[in-house]
Design a protein that fits this description.
heterodimer, A: 206 residues, alpha+beta, five-stranded antiparallel β-sheet, globular, B: 267 residues, mainly alpha, two-stranded antiparallel sheet, 2 strands, 63% helix
């Protein structure tokens, strides 16, 4: 009798845990299925507002890099971008090396693009339109710089990571994923294939 | 004066160039969209150009950006850009892009008159921005393949198609009808505008040239992506992966690793 109750309690507890897990999963899964043009646009609207604020802030280079690092962590799918940049060399990297690489990569991107965007100081970006490409959304923007013809800046947005994040950016057709895969590949070659050496170099580049 | 020579030349050009451009062997189109059979020679040219930049162009450009007042720099750029418009219109006509030709015609008219011979970009105030066109693009529209990647001395990255385009643009420039030496004076602002841009975007150019692990590979990738974007004509000889519509999720979930599982799954 007693054992039966215990069993049924156990059963009930398991059932509840599982049900709870299932509910949690579907709560998180539901919005993930529904990335829309509206949501892709709202992500880029916020992202662009943050970039524009940084561009007009007149921050010193160091503070600008910190701001870009914050923007990158908040809006970008960093694990995916880092894994893509590492490319086939990622296959032989240990989990610890991948973690170290990803951290170094964030700082490197913030310094590098913080510097590039410094040339855009005084400019602003406007969001134009959103279109679906394959399983993701491409949000087209136009950058306006004083004394320059406007040019295209596009953000690729996906919810594959469970949240709406951008995973690629194109400035006049030049995209971040290919550029960084080429650069990281060259850094690995320069170190004769040594991943730890590349990660060490990455911490001071950009 | 050039035109009687040019007409028969143009007629034979598209056909001739299709045969003259280096093409990847059938089925051997590079997966990364980069066709660079002259890489060794290109790298040597790149190294020499970088040395010239470091010793001459960069210091001059930085001094120019520092000493010439910003409004004057902008006037030089506007003046030089305006002089490039007749050539762009000619190319748009050759591409049968009548809308573009009209757009640039209006722009040229406004800036040459209200803009004091192009010194002020009045048209931009009306939202009529420059719509660049060149003969390399015209060749692309005519169906001439991109050909191999080339690094030209000082001028920098090009493809075989664009290198030919640059030469033809010099020859067919409507400004050539202006007599010398005035036509030569008109080339000076172009050079000054180029130098000015090197100075103004010093941080970006320096980071590309001097901070990249492989500045040759970076310049090549940057040029090809940007050029294909500008030309706006896809080249079937080159794979579409370089066009930028990369889906890293499908690539990474394939034979490779799932970054989330690898990074966070093992807690």
């Amino acid at each position: 009798m007693k054992s039966y109750t215990e069993n049924s309690d156990m059963f009930r507890r398991h059932f509840l845990t599982r049900a709870a897990a299932g509910v949690t999963a579907s709560v998180f899964a539901l919005p993930a299925l529904a990335l829309t043009t509206g949501r892709a646009r709202s992500l880029v609207d916020q992202l662009v507002a943050d970039i524009n604020r940084a561009l007009s802030s007149g921050l010193a280079p160091g503070a600008m890099h910190a701001e870009f690092e914050r923007i990158f962590r908040r809006y970008a799918d960093v694990p995916t971008i880092a894994a893509y940049a590492l490319g086939v060399d990622g296959r032989r990297a240990s989990a610890a090396q991948k973690r170290a690489f990803q951290e170094a990569f964030i700082g490197y991107i913030a310094r590098k693009y913080g510097t590039r965007f410094r040339d855009f100081a005084g400019g602003r970006i406007e969001v134009d339109e959103v279109r679906q490409v394959k399983s993701f959304y491409e949000v087209s923007c136009t950058a306006h710089l004083p004394g320059e013809a406007p040019f295209a800046v596009d953000f690729m947005v996906s919810d594959n990571a469970g949240r709406d994040l951008f995973f690629n950016m194109k400035i006049e057709g030049v995209n971040l994923l290919l550029t960084e895969r080429t650069e990281i590949g060259a850094m690995i070659d320069r170190r004769g294939g040594n991943l730890d050496g590349m990660i060490q170099d990455l911490r001071s580049s950009g | 004066m050039f035109f009687p020579v040019i007409r028969p030349m143009l007629a034979g050009l598209a056909l001739g160039l299709s045969a003259a451009c280096t093409l990847p062997a059938p089925g051997a189109a590079p997966a990364d969209g980069i066709f660079d059979p002259y890489e060794t020679r290109n790298r040597a040219t790149h190294a020499r150009s970088k040395a010239v930049d470091r010793r001459v162009i960069r210091p001059v450009a930085l001094a120019y950006a520092d000493t010439v007042p910003q409004p004057v720099q902008e006037m030089v750029v506007h003046f030089a850009d305006n002089l490039a418009v007749p050539g762009a219109v000619l190319n748009q006509l050759l591409q049968l892009d009548l809308g573009g030709a009209l757009h640039n015609g209006v722009r040229f008219g406004l800036n040459s008159t209200l803009g004091f011979a192009g010194v002020f970009d009045v048209a931009a105030e009306f939202g009529i921005y420059e719509d660049e066109a060149d003969f390399g693009q015209t060749l692309a529209v005519w169906g001439v393949p991109e050909g191999a990647y080339l690094e030209l001395p000082i001028l920098g990255p090009a493809t075989e198609r664009d290198a030919v385009g640059r030469v033809v643009d010099l020859l067919i420039d409507p400004l050539n009808t202006i007599a010398r030496p005035e036509s030569l004076y008109l080339k000076l602002p172009k050079v000054a505008a180029k130098v000015g841009k090197r100075g103004r975007y010093a941080a970006s150019v320096d980071s590309l040239f001097y901070d990249s692990a492989d500045s040759y590979a970076q310049s090549r990738l940057l040029y090809l992506q940007n050029r294909r974007f500008d030309v706006g004509v896809s080249d079937r000889a080159i794979s579409s992966t370089a066009d930028g519509e990369i889906d890293p999720y499908s690539e990474l979930s394939g034979a490779m690793t799932d970054p989330y599982e690898e990074l966070y799954g093992e807690q």
